[in-house]
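Example 3.2
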Amino acid sequence: MYLEDKDGRRYLDFTSGIGVTSTGHCHPKVVQAIQRQAAELIHGQYTTVLHPRLIELTERLGAHLPAGLDSLFFANSGSEAIEAAVRLARHATGRANIVVFHGAFHGRTVGAASLTSSRPIYTAGLQPLMAGVVVAPFPYAYRYGWDEEQATAFCLRELDHLLASVVAADDVAAFIIEPLLGEGGYVPTSLAFLAGLRQRCDQHGILLIIDEVQTGVGRTGRFWGHEHARIRPDALVIAKGLASGMPLSALAAPAELMSKARPGSQGGTYGGNAVACAAALATLDVIAKEELVARSANLGDHLLVKLRQLTHGSEVIGDVRGLGLMVGVELADDNGALASAVQREAVARGLLLLTCGTHGQVIRWIPPLVVTEDELDMGVELFGEALDAAQAGSATKRSSVISRTA
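Structure, written as tokens:
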């Protein structure tokens, strides 16, 4: 749970390398698996050498995949896997357009960045981007000032209007959505909205691609984030928590769908690297043995309760939300200045946190799944101190400005 700097100071890490080190830093079983594999085979490119770890991982991961998703393509990063998903969707359907949703983050490569709308910094200065991308509203209830039901109904109506006015449904290859917005603000996608997307995909022959890069492998208290909604994806994008810090991602889809990709269109030199696959196998072992999925669900509930108690009656806390150990605290100061100050004050107290949201106004909580209840409580206590200090600092600055102006 801890990182140590060059001076020996320890920091409670509630960032997990942006959701990557779910088994904690240097879990002994993962380290041993990496060491063993590095002494046996570091790299065997999978179109030339079908190494045992790749076969084992395909079988093991396949046991966790939704019914019907029986084929895997391995890459290195979430962006690469998203690019592969878009390529597959266009080839398989013969359609060009992709519908994404406000606040989404799908990566920084040109195609993946074209699908991203969480912040303009990911696309500024890069135009023209990939054509054929249409952005639809996302049911961000807090932002709209509505309850979840109202926001969901509005966004589904707007999606239908978009399909009637902007892009024809039979020209759409896929909808791509995160079960819980990541960079966009840690907002759970309402279950009714996901169900509504599935219904429209079935109606119009559109593929539903679920981006589980940040939500997958136990992070939300289910093995996959979309399982909360009990929907069936047509394809699944996996990365981050899969290999405890080694670069590995995957695209899962039915073999029939995968077979529609043009020969040679998917590939890569390092995808399915032997050492990364060994780390992923060890990660799956740890997740199973230490029951980290159930742990994420239980401790996530505990974290939500503690944060809501801490922020009850606070004028600066707008919303506390999340699934499992993926929780966002949105500050009412929507320019991000207070959140940045809280983050700095937390670091000064030995707690590492990240911000997200369009304006950087959300504090995100994404600790390793091996976190203990005591460590969560410690983190919440340090966060409370950081919040108080940041507010005091802001008040001092305002007083100074008023004094100078006077």
